[in-house]
Amino acid sequence: MNNFRIAEPAPSVYECARASAGVCGVLNAKSIYREGAKDANNLFDSDFMDQGNRVAVTYADTVGSLQKKPSRPSRLRGSIVSGLFFFCILSSVIFLLASASFAFAMSGREVYEKVHEVRSKALDRKTEATMVLFDKGGGKRTRTLTEYSKKADPEAYKILVVFNSPPDLKNVGFLIYAHTFSDRDLWAYFPEYKRVRRIATSSQDDSFFGSDFSYDDFGGPPNLGDYKFSMEKEEVIDGKSCYVVEVTPKIHRKYTKYVAWVAKDLWIHMKIEYYQDKDIYRAGSFKDVRIIEGIPTTFEIVMENRKTNHRTELTIESIKYHTQFPDDLFTQRSLERAGK
After folding, report:
1. Rounded distance, CA 78 to CA 34, Å?
2. What pLDDT sits at residue 121?
3. pTM for this one?
4. DSSP conformation class of 308
5. What does the alpha-carbon distance between residue 202 and residue 223 come to, in Å, rounded to a whole number?
């Protein structure tokens, strides 16, 4: 994780090359031009190249003359010149690496503090959604559901999800009661069995009722202390500039890490990839972002299981924020009655 901040942007390869030339007096401009053209957008001017070539030729002539006169002082001068040349090249490499470490204005942890803030603001809501499951053979199943959620300061929150269709899933429900971001209870209700089943925290990454989402995907903000964050790069997704952050759990999870593309200023996911060791096993994309009641909201999420070639599309049909549901909506008794 990188915690450095800077006021100025990191220098380009082109600028580093010129700085190196000024300090050392030795530069093979053609080589630097070839390596740095992409970053410098072909900004090397001909005068600078000519100057670099002249310096390079002078250096070659100097080394050649030293080799022709292998006297002790000459060998000493040759060693000094070679040493200076090596020092300058090494300094340039270190300078480039140091510059890259200062390239990001925010750390990965700071990005997720912003994500956490937005997700917390979005907790008081009611959502109507459609979920479509696609199998690898081309078949699909459609479900509709209603989600209720409520925030209870400072960290507690409650979420109730109830399926409305198809008939075999009608009134099946899911309840989260989070005492804090790191301490929460999960339950599921199946009308067929007329019983509430507790879901172990260790199962939070399991499939959410046969879909490609997990139970945790329907949870609230996580406990940031349970993860390590590393800023990787910046990239544009669907026209939005994103920070790319690698997130590694400190506690046991089904995944070993995930990489997330977080939209700047919106602080929501645009893309996410879950890894098991080196392989991506689950990937999600987030589209149709709108600002609803001042809160950035994704209206279409596609989650794909790379191992089974199965995917699930979740579409928000309607959403309302700043709701004020009573506490008795988020109880096991309410779960059994499908929130009624």
Report:
1. 28
2. 93
3. 0.70
4. T
5. 15
